[in-house]
Specification:
The chain is of the alpha+beta class and about 80 residues long. It has helices at about 50-60, 70-80; strands at about 15-20, 30-35, 40-45. A 3-stranded antiparallel sheet has the order 1-2-3, with no helix packed on it.
Length: about 80
Amino acid sequence: MSIPEPRQPKKSGSYIEERTFYSKDEERTYHVKQIDVGGGGSYVVSMEVVAKHAAEDILGEAPGTLTDENTRAIWDKIWKGSSL
């Protein structure tokens, strides 16, 4: 799995609107937030990924380390900020 390149930090702004878009081949889902940064508009785009793959990336685990059975428990710990 290839991890997309992270975006450059942006100034925080006021949230205006959020919409969902799909790639032409309908393989990927993008969540786009339009924000107002100092009078100029900006967009922040997030892409849906498999939760198991994201958890492995966040935890620095090798791909394929987590199983479908333990992904929810791992995400509960990540979400709550518990040490793993």
